[in-house]
Amino acid sequence: MIVAFSVTPLGVGEDVGEYVADAVRVVRESGLPNRTDAMFTSVEGEWEECMEVVRRAVAAVEARAPRVSLVLKADIRPGVTDGLTSKVATVERHLG
């Protein structure tokens, strides 16, 4: 499964990069395949693994912010691995 999520601290002002970095650090330290872009962080693994990483990422931001917003989207496709790379490669091949 691939989970794309965004954790946003609320009530901390306009500059939220350091709070978001706390969440991304949790994802990177998880050891699961991941990718971060300007809007979302994606993580790939089994349901329990992914949800635990999301939970810990939210907790990291929640520890420093009075309120947290979470947006989450999941691609649940049993038996598929390396989706973070293969899905993008398929689109690039069609653009090719």
Automatic annotation (TrEMBL):
Transmembrane segments: none annotated. Residues 3-92 form the Thiamine-binding protein domain. Signal peptide: none annotated. One of its GO terms (cellular component) is cytosol. Belongs to the UPF0045 family. PANTHER family: UPF0045 PROTEIN ECM15 (PTHR33777). This is Uncharacterized protein, MTH1187 family. The lineage of its organism: Bacteria, Bacillati, Actinomycetota, Actinomycetes, Kitasatosporales.
